[in-house]
Design brief:
The chain is of the alpha+beta class. The chain has helices spanning 115-123, 129-147, 154-157, 163-171; strands at 2-4, 14-22, 25-32, 39-41, 44-47, 52-58, 63-69, 75-83, 87-89, 92-104, 110-113. It has one domain: FomD barrel-like fold (Beta Barrel), CATH 2.40.380. Strands 1, 2, 3, 6, 7, 8, 9, 10 and 11 form a 9-stranded antiparallel beta sheet that branches. The longest helix is centred in the last third of the chain and has 19 residues, at 129-147. The two termini are 30 Å apart.
């Protein structure tokens, strides 16, 4: 599956979308409008009316990090998509998702998700040898860097929503 900047799955439910480049990082922000049902990752609600998502395309790390916040600006968690190297140009960024995800809770607990789906993709030949090796290497490198507080970078770790700017967008939901 390809991950593409500006694409978040349910375009009718997006209340607001913004994108800005900060050096070599593309930062996307969305504010969710009304959804037919809250979106969950595992059992955690990560999208509902007024929830705020940021997606950081980290060219220097060839990595994507998504940060999720509820409508009050409280951190829900970070998801790191294990992926192939990023392709970025003046129109945006894209990459190939390698199925595995790393979740970081607000308390700092790290969990690798989708391992069964990854193994099934390997067994069914949906991932080639290069992709399999990249995924396994990335999980080891990223979880090690997270444990040493070297990833995500400070720009991402310290990012918080500016509710004064976002509140008018949330009120429209």
């Amino acid at each position: 599956m390809e991950i593409i900047s500006g694409v978040f799955g349910d375009p009718e439910a997006l209340r607001d979308y913004r994108a800005e480049r900060l050096g070599d990082v593309l930062v996307e922000r969305i504010v969710w409008g009304e959804l037919s049902a809250p979106r969950r990752l595992r059992q955690i609600v990560v999208a509902d009316a007024g929830f705020i998502w940021y997606r950081f395309w980290l060219s220097g790390h060839d990595q994507i990090v998504e940060r999720y916040f509820d409508r009050l600006g409280r951190a829900i968690g970070d998801q790191i998509d294990v992926c192939m190297p990023l392709t970025c140009n003046e129109h945006g960024c894209s990459t190939v998702d390698l199925v595995l995800d790393i979740w970081i809770s607000p308390e700092g607990q790290v969990t690798v998700h989708n391992e069964e789906a990854f193994e099934q993709s390997v067994a069914e030949g949906m991932l080639n040898t290069l992709q399999i090796e990249r995924a396994e290497k990335q999980v080891r490198a990223l979880t090690g860097a997270i444990a040493r507080h070297r990833f995500p970078p400070p720009l991402v770790r310290n990012w918080r929503p500016d509710l004064a700017r976002i509140a008018p967008l949330q009120e429209r939901t």
